[in-house]
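Contributing new records

If you add data, match the layout below exactly. Sequence lines come first and carry their own label; structure lines follow with theirs. Keep one chain per record. Anything else will be rejected by the validation script.
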Amino acid sequence: MTEISFYDAAGGEDTFRRLVHRFYEGVKEDPLLRPMYPDEDMEGAEERLRGFLIQYWGGPTTYSRERGHPRLRMRHAPFVVDEAARDAWLKHMRVAVDEIALPEELETKLWNYLEYAAQSMVNTPS
């Protein structure tokens, strides 16, 4: 038997598209996070996060084919990511996760990863 991926169990690309789009709607209005995203790259940032999450959770590997290894800490190194930025990121992601309304087991797995990932990006002590 073939095990179904988280990506497929969660609803595939549509779910991740909705998740990331809702997340960036919050980011666009956030005074702490918004300056990290130039206007001309907001759409690109959304596409990159969506692609990364799709790949991470078992979907197509387009992200790595186009961008190489994720190297998340390195890619975030130019930005001040302190606990306040982490908390703001998680606040907007929490809204997005709640809106996609995954089954509890999937939501818990996704949220645990997002909390871990957000903490691992912190590069500046508060």
